[in-house]
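Minutes, project check-in
Item: structure for the 202-residue chain
Input as provided by the requester:
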Amino acid sequence: MATTRGRPRSFDRDMLLDKAIRMFWTNGYEATSVRDLTCELGIAAPSLYNTFGGKQQLFAEAVEVYDRVYGGFIDAALAEEPTAQLAAARIFTEAPARYTRRGLPAGCLVVSGDAGTPDPVVQRAMRKIRERKVAQFADKVRADIDAGRIAADANPEALGRFVMAVLSGIAQQARDGISRTKLDQLAAVAVDLAITSLGRAR
């Protein structure tokens, strides 16, 4: 039976979005072209724009979903652990496994997705996400200062940046192909540093 000309192709939007996430995760925003996306997703450019609003909008949605689905271990640690020290230790301990999962790209989309792009909209959006992570951890530190678990002269923002900078380093090392064993060793050093930095009683 012939298919009616012009009839829209049926597809699973969530499945296509996940494919796009993995493409951006592997190649970054700048190196992923609209043609690459249409080939990988198996849809024509008009369908891509109608469904996702174009490459920039698709990337923004991909990062949002990635952060919730694939990168949620950071938010979980901050929400579930009672102190900044324990949250940092959990984040560092879990990071090597998260960034080297079988069947998924290595590293972290939030860390490297905007690498090399001159697009100011993408740059600002990604910086905003990373700054939010720093602020969330800084809030955790402030709560510990108020509770007397960390010295009153501790710098919450600096400690937040320390944790996220080390985490970004672990992600980049994973992207560079460093073995899981070596990443676990790196994480163990990071945990020791976090315990020292975040365990100073008043």
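Outcome recorded: The chain is about 70% helix and 0% strand.
No further action items on this chain.
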